[in-house]
Design brief:
By secondary structure, this protein is mostly helical. It is built from eleven helices and no strands. The relative contact order is 0.13. The model has no long low-confidence stretch (mean pLDDT about 95).
Length: about 220
């Protein structure tokens, strides 16, 4: 199991800015959640695995129909790769994802007795489930305070000067080391939602940004 990141020593001024930033996020949304539709650990794992290089809207549209007929490992395996493809062919990389979802369903049945594992090591051993997917699942289920670094989190972390890491792993390490402990279970969602709706890639909406006074990059866009 990966050891928790050591807390990073910040200057008093920077520590106060980071604390104020996440306090502000909390006032905007106290209990943020994933926008993916799911109703148990299995459907969450599948939905997150399908969301790579796809929008939550695209995934939800597909899984609404898919989960109506296959919401357990047994039903998914019975559906088969060809059957699953018909439900998710509107999502990018659908053939590879179909292969992985069928394979992970089989492994859950054979190795875990049909119960979706909730230990990081076991999750990351599932086909198509890497560290980022496992982090989303563990955080959403309240099992582990984790920060999954997608393109939104990566961009926002850099613009807010929370990290200068060149890789998602390094950004994750930086965030885990400076985000206030009480905010760790929600920071992932706050940063994603901020990047998705406000701090967008091409034209960030700085005029509508509720944390712009705490953003070192605001002069670049506003």
């Amino acid at each position: 199991m990966k050891k928790p990141a050591p807390r990073k020593r910040l200057s008093p001024k920077e520590k106060a800015r980071v604390a104020a930033l996440f306090e502000r996020f909390q006032t905007l949304s106290d209990d943020p959640r994933t926008e993916l539709h799911f109703h148990d650990p299995f459907t969450l794992v599948v939905a997150v695995a399908l969301s790579a290089q796809a929008t939550d809207v695209q995934v939800n549209k597909a899984t609404t129909k898919l989960f109506a007929v296959a919401d357990t490992p047994e039903k998914m395996l019975a559906l088969g790769e060809a059957g699953l493809t018909g439900y998710i062919n509107s999502i990018g990389l659908f053939r590879n994802k179909a292969r992985n979802v069928i394979a992970l369903s089989r492994l859950i049945l054979e190795k875990h007795g049909g119960r979706t594992p909730t230990r990081r090591e076991d999750l990351e051993a599932l086909p198509g489930v890497g560290r980022k997917t496992a982090s989303v699942v563990l955080n959403e289920l309240g099992i582990e305070p984790a920060i999954a670094v997608d393109t939104h989190v990566f961009r926002v972390a850099h613009r807010l000067k929370l990290s200068d890491g060149k890789t998602p792993d390094k950004v994750e390490q930086d965030l885990m080391a400076i985000v206030p402990a009480e905010a760790l279970t929600r920071a992932h969602h706050w940063l994603i939602l901020h990047g998705r709706y406000t701090c967008t890639a091409r034209k960030p909406k700085c005029g509508d940004c509720q944390v712009r006074d705490l953003c070192p990059s605001r002069e670049l866009f506003f």
